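Researcher: Sequence recovery benchmark, item below. Answer with residues only.
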């Protein structure tokens, strides 16, 4: 398909620089009926049914953006995928100035060696520490890898609370360099309301990579190469999902990352197996969804793989109309923005 089909105009004023406060006060565009209904996230329990099952991504964002020196040359590195206990793939600027065998110093006792160079400024780093020690170094020396469209002045950055805001309340498994943003809307109070409604909650893990922000530079979707991300789906969660479906309940993915992992683990419609490993699944219109019935998601970038996914799920024409409605009603877009609830197009 032509990538131009997924383009639309979005003025800068619609892009959210900060999240709603409290989180569940964000607006919610309900597309589960015949038209569009303007709601807020606290309305979610009323839109779901007893016996439904929400699936969230429990990945935890790490401070994966590092500022370092190679000699006197300043280097900015954004880690995006862990490949070993002490190794990460990263996007580096300026990547062309780095050579295999060179060392980048991020602090007096924290450095990494360039062990591989790839296209597009991608680097493989081998750090001088690994495991929990490496995560502690990132906590000390790293910055939260906010998307490029979230703007921070120096004064704003000092007052921002992104280490808390850019993290779901149910984040557990360290390893993501981008937040599963649909999950940012949830609060303890919202979960209590969902529980009273009889809606259950389970988690999967997909460590979201920085590749999720990369633009689609090709003219046709068939020529785009997705970056792989690591995820896991346990037997316990598989059993809960299967039991939900057998009882007539619906499976609702919180975000495109949860959906992508569930669909990666599905072998046929309604058939789900445990999964551990990398997935580079790329969902575009024409894809036959196997597991997910509803999708809670934010508003995505034009020409992005995420807008392609939601168009595959709910219909391209409907999503274009929904985004025009959202702009007209001043919804807030992207990671810190508002959300929408989609029904799978049958």
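Model:
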């Amino acid at each position: 398909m032509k990538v131009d089909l997924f383009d639309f105009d979005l003025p800068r004023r619609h892009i959210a620089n900060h999240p709603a406060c409290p989180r569940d006060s964000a607006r919610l565009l309900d597309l589960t009926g015949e038209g569009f209904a303007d709601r807020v996230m606290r309305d979610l329990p009323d839109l779901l049914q007893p016996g439904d099952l929400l699936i969230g991504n429990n990945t935890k964002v790490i401070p994966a953006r590092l500022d370092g020196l190679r000699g006197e040359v300043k280097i900015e590195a954004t880690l995006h995928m862990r490949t070993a206990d002490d190794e990460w793939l990263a996007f580096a600027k300026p990547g062309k100035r780095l050579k295999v065998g060179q060392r980048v110093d991020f602090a007096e006792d924290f450095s990494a060696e360039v062990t591989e160079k790839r296209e597009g400024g991608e680097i493989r780093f081998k750090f001088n520490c690994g495991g929990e020690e490496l995560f502690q170094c990132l906590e000390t020396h790293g910055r939260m890898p906010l998307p490029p469209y979230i703007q921070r002045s120096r004064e704003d950055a000092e007052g921002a609370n992104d280490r808390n805001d850019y993290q779901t309340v149910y984040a557990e498994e360290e390893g993501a360099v981008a937040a599963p943003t649909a999950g940012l809307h949830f609060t303890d109070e919202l979960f209590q309301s969902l529980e009273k409604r009889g809606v259950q909650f389970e988690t999967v893990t997909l460590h979201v990579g920085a590749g999720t922000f990369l633009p689609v530079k090709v003219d046709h979707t068939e020529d785009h190469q997705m970056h792989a991300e690591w995820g896991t789906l346990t037997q316990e969660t598989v059993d809960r999902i299967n039991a939900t479906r057998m009882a007539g309940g619906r499976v609702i993915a919180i975000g495109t990352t949860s959906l992508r992992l569930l669909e990666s683990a599905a072998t046929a419609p309604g058939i789900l197996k445990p999964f551990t490993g990398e997935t580079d699944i790329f969902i575009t219109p024409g894809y036959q969804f196997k597991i997910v019935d509803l999708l809670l998601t934010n508003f995505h970038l034009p020409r992005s793989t995420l807008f392609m996914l939601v168009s595959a799920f709910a219909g391209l024409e409907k999503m274009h109309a929904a985004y025009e409605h959202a702009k007209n009603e001043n919804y807030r877009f992207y990671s810190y923005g508002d959300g929408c609830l989609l029904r799978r197009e049958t």
